Amino acid sequence: MTSALEVAQAPALISTTTIWSLFATVAILAAGYISSRQLLPTSASNKTRFLFIWHATDALIHFILEGSYLWNCFFSSSTLVAAGLSGSEYLPRNVFFLGDQENVYGASYGSSLTSALWREYARADKRWGGTDLTVISLELLTVSIAGPLAVWVCYCIKNNRSEASFWMIVLATGELYGGWMTFVPVSPTRVLKCFTRHSELTCICRNG
Q: Is there a smaller number of Cβ atoms within 10 Å at the N or the C end of the chain?
């Protein structure tokens, strides 16, 4: 029998932060659609419009959502003393982010809405709560290269440039590589635990 304390401590399956995050994603998609209505001619085919919306949304996600992850990595922090830590749990021992031996960085130590968003994401993959160096390296490439490249693809589509398809392939290849390097190297050390309690299915991903 589940105690009242266990029920009170159980994390909500859908939190306020989750709802806000989903709303932000829908808003970004809507922005991509509106931009297609504003920038593409009414005679544009459904295929052209879809590709434009896809890449416009891709660019906005890179700049806004993933950009906010990097912002938290560099500008959200707490002292080691306040966090009750002797070092960052996201870095090897005696390795300090930005060479700062007094503070820890990342969304786990921020107070903004984007900090809350990435803390929610970190419930599934804790690396996004702090300063995992591999993730930061890939996200820097994503925000600084993939984002602008997606904008360039939109420009090519809008102006009916012949090289649009080439750059779409380049971008897609980069996205696939980034996803592979982000998730596959850690998958052997991750344990997926799924358990059911009183008809509620909870899946917890924990890094080993």
A: N
Distances 76 to 2, 24, 109, 111, 159 between C-alpha atoms, Å: 38, 21, 6, 8, 40
Answer whether 108's CB lies under 8 Å from 129's CB.
Answer: yes
End-to-end CA, the chain:
30
User: Which residue bears the tokens 């989903």?
Assistant: 22
Tens of pLDDT, residues 13-24: 678 888 888 999
Q: Which of 90, 106, 120, 88 is nearest to 21 (CA)?
A: 120
| In the predicted structure, residue 163 carries a pLDDT above the cut 90 | yes
Tens-digit pLDDT profile for residues 37-54:
999 999 999 999 999 999
Residue 194: phi and psi, rounded to 5, are -120, 130
Spatial CB neighbours of 190, under 8 Å, sequence gap ≥ 6: 205, 206, 207, 208
Torsion of CA 67, 147, 135, 112, to 10 degrees: 10
Helix, strand or coil for residue 59?
A: helix
